[in-house]
Design a protein that fits this description.
Blueprint (H helix, E strand, L loop, with lengths): L4 H13 L8 H4 E9 L2 E4 L1 H13 L1 E13 L5 E12 L11 E12 L5 E8 L1 H10 L6
Parallel strand pairs: 1-6
Antiparallel strand pairs: 1-2, 3-4, 4-5, 5-6
Length: about 140
């Protein structure tokens, strides 16, 4: 297993999610049969993942991605990462494009192959709170 799995994942974050956003980097960073499990739904295949990334990025104006922390298990086969996205709503979650500012936080757990290629990503994020920010203009929706 790779000993530098944190570097592999953080390189993915930089290449794909940080500006200038390069979803085409996915072609070399994830396996052909890559799976992302997001919101309990599997998006299967590299090409479908690229479409999903481009769609997500298009729904956010002033998109900024921040790595909070990243660490790996002993053999490098799993990496956990906390992250934050800030921006303005451009139709996220089926809402109107109202430009409302939001802050999304999340956790990603990655499977890293022996070849250093990303194979699976399980993502959880604070979608309920973000929905309140972009529809009610409030960070506190309770």
């Amino acid at each position: 297993m790779p000993s530098n799995s944190v570097e592999i994942v953080e390189n993915f974050w930089r290449e794909v999610w940080k500006r200038p956003h390069n979803p085409d980097a996915i072609d070399t960073l994830v396996s052909e049969d890559f799976v992302i499990t997001s919101g309990g739904r599997d998006i299967i295949g590299r090409d479908n993942f690229k479409v999903w990334v481009k769609g997500f990025q298009a729904q956010v104006h002033d998109f900024e991605f921040h790595i909070v922390e990243t660490f790996q298990n002993a053999d490098g086969s799993r990496v956990a990462s906390r992250w934050k996205v800030t921006g303005r709503n451009n139709g996220m979650m089926g809402t109107e494009c109202n430009g409302a500012p939001f802050e999304m936080t999340g956790t990603a757990v990655w499977e890293v192959g022996e070849d250093g290629v990303l194979r699976h990503n399980w993502v959880e994020r604070n979608a309920f709170e973000v929905h309140g920010q972009i529809t009610q203009g409030s960070h506190n929706v309770f």
